[in-house]
Design a protein that fits this description.
- Helices cover 47% and strands 15% of the residues.
- The protein is an alpha/beta fold.
- The strands form 6 sheets. It has a 5-stranded parallel sheet with strand order 3-2-1-15-16, sandwiched between helices.
- The radius of gyration is 27 Å and the shape is elongated.
- It binds one RNA strand of 76 nucleotides through α2, α6, β10, α7 and α9.
Length: 570
RNA sequence: GGGCCCGUAGCUCAGCGGUUAGAGCUGACCGCUCAUAACGGUUAGGUCGCAGGUUCGAAUCCUGCCGGGCCUACCA
């Protein structure tokens, strides 16, 4: 059986993500996972929370909690919301897991043995008041270039000049505001990716089918200026994976942890081990080790464009540098950003709709459909309440939901809640089946290519075909003269419901299930062939007219939400 | 500063060297009455950001400009 390994960029532990984050990785990854499962392939779909780094420590402190406690709590929160959106992870792991500790330390040991780790002594800013080293962005001061007084240590937001923290006039900690800063000598490990430049270049060059968005970013980092730079992979923090060389201590690195961007991608692998240890699977290496069966696995990663360098360069450098036969990614699907009503979604300003809020006002299918059918694939796209309302009402309520409603209610009134058996299919049905076969193949092709908006448009056209057929066959008129023919039309139309449900399940899993349940259809195998797919409901089988699948969004609701989410998150 | 992406109907987007530039939504008109006033059909609407160039032929390739966005390596 074909096997597909799918990972979504792992969301940071710090707070609840907004819809832009969702549509940039987890949601499309879930669509692809569900589609592949639907096609009968063996799928391992993994995601996790990314729990290390300075922001996690600060967020925990702000919440008055221990970091580990805070992360455990936020992991549970994110897991519940993911479930609310029906994200079908086989496992939702944690980068702080013991499995990831072991694996990260293992990789570091292998890289050191391969001569790919350098120990570098450097000078960094230390805040006595905060009792921590400060990353460049956590140092504020006056810009020497333009005089802006809230310039950060890496760059001035006002004049965009690149800065070094030591350039700042009157530097202070962005955490506490303290000016009691000093420069201290500290030793760190660097991954010598520069020595792997040719190897990485050759690997990227072999990926001719990757989107330009993905390869151009990687090529720039590889070849711009002096080429790929070595990268620090350790930090002076309390919370993280202790620096070790495999299982042994690393002399001189006591008290230091690996940098979050070193351990986070390794969690993709460790998550599979967590999956096994949680009793959900029995062999993770056949997904990840090419010497243990992973050779025939297709590995697809989903992420926002900001994550591309880490997935095209530093993570592959880690894997290739280990000298071990780990699975490398086969395809990277990256996304642009979703904007909110004329500006950006903003976590810090609470601008836009966050995942928990979205679920509190509407079922997940509404969001899944709109977000996926407007996924920012080629450029940034924009969420507006007007577009959302119009799209959801038209596509889900009028086209799909109303189709199910009109045919089930028609059948109930003329033949009862049972699949009618009289009459035979004729040229009209043959014509619709031919059209549906063509559209089904186009839909599948778009899904295979992970062209999400095109797949959504094709699916919608498949729904529309049902209304076109019903309108031209007009069983309500035919019934007066030829009840048997009307019965055949009705039987055919009712059979479209489970067919639609199976094709639509990757986008709108809950509604799809409701459709199958209402029709009493237990067969959920993918309808490869339209004629077969439209014969799943045998004549004489009972069904129930389902509740309204998608209630429309009223103008009042829209106006209310528009106002509610315009300001700052409460 | 450098790099990359985008700019096509009122809106969201497709097309990316070859007949009169397409789809969905919105608008207008017609039809239907089974249905969540839903559905179907017809139709209106664009000098394809601007200016040059290459070509028998350009929305599509090249150059410059204008506008929007992202990245630029210690945020993750």
């Amino acid at each position: 059986m074909e096997r597909v390994l799918i990972t979504s960029a792992i969301p940071y532990i710090n707070g609840i993500k907004h819809l832009g984050n969702l549509v940039g990785s987890q949601l499309p990854a879930d669509l692809f996972a569900r589609y592949n499962r639907g096609r009968g392939r063996e799928v391992l779909f993994l995601c996790a929370t990314d729990e290390h780094g300075t922001p996690a420590e600060l967020a925990a402190a702000k919440a008055g909690m221990d970091v580990a406690e805070y992360c455990a709590k936020m992991h549970a929160v994110q897991a519940e919301i993911a479930q609310g959106f029906r994200l079908s992870f086989d496992h939702f792991g944690r980068s702080s897991s013991p499995q990831n500790h072991r694996l990260t330390q293992h990789f570091a040991g292998r890289l050191a043995d391969a001569g790919l780790i350098a120990e570098v002594s450097e000078r960094q800013v230390y805040s006595n008041a905060d009792r921590r080293f400060l990353p460049d962005r956590y140092i504020e001061g006056t810009c020497p270039n333009c005089g802006y007084d809230k310039a950060r240590g890496d760059q001035c937001e006002n004049c965009t000049k690149q800065l070094d923290p030591t350039d700042l006039i009157e530097p202070r900690s962005a955490i506490s505001g303290s000016t009691d800063l000093e420069v201290r000598e500290t030793k760190h490990l660097y991954l010598r990716q520069s020595s792997m430049r040719d190897q990485l270049n050759a690997w990227i060059d072999s990926k001719a089918d990757w989107p330009i968005l993905t390869t151009s970013i990687a090529k720039k980092w590889l070849n711009d200026g002096d080429g790929l730079q070595d990268r620090g992979i350790t930090r002076d923090l309390d919370w993280g994976i202790p620096v070790k060389k495999g299982t042994e201590d690393w002399p001189g690195m006591e008290g230091k942890v690996f940098y979050v961007w070193f351990d986070a991608p390794i969690e993709y692998i460790a998550c599979a081990a967590e999956w096994v240890d949680a009793g959900k699977g029995d062999d993770w290496e056949r997904w990840w080790r090419t010497d243990k069966g992973a050779d025939d696995v297709r590995y697809v990663q989903f992420m926002g464009k900001d994550n591309v360098p880490f997935h095209t360069l530093s993570f592959p450098a880690t894997i290739l540098g280990s000298g071990e036969p780990w699975k490398l990614v086969d395809y990277i699907k990256s996304f642009n950003y979703l904007n909110y009503d004329g500006g950006q979604f903003s976590t810090s300003q609470g601008r836009g709709v966050f995942m928990d809020q979205a679920l509190s006002i509407l079922p997940s299918d509404y969001w899944r459909w709109w977000l996926l059918s407007h996924a920012p694939e080629t450029s940034d796209s924009e969420f507006t309440w007007e577009n959302f309302q119009a799209g959801v009402n038209k596509d889900l309520a009028d086209v799909l939901g109303n189709f199910v409603s009109r045919i089930t209610k028609f059948c109930r009134s003329k033949f009862g809640e049972v699949i009618p058996e009289a009459g035979a299919y004729g040229p009209q049905e043959a014509q619709v089946m031919a059209e549906l076969q063509t559209r089904l193949e186009a839909y599948q092709a778009h899904m295979e290519a992970i062209e999400i908006r095109k797949a959504a448009a094709e699916l919608r056209a498949i729904w529309v075909a049902g209304n076109e057929y019903l309108q031209s066959a007009a069983p309500w008129t035919v019934h007066k003269e030829d009840p048997d023919r009307a019965a055949a039309i009705t039987r055919f139309s009712l059979n479209l419901i489970p067919f639609y449900a199976l094709l639509s399940a990757p986008f709108i899993p809950d509604a799809a299930q409701a459709m199958l349940d209402a029709m009493g259809c237990a067969d959920n195998t993918w309808p490869e062939d339209v004629a077969e797919g439209l014969s799943r409901l045998p004549a004489g089988q009972g069904f129930a007219v389902p509740d309204v699948l998608f209630a429309k969004i009223s103008d009042e609701d829209r106006a209310t939400w528009q106002a509610q989410f315009a300001g700052v998150r409460g």
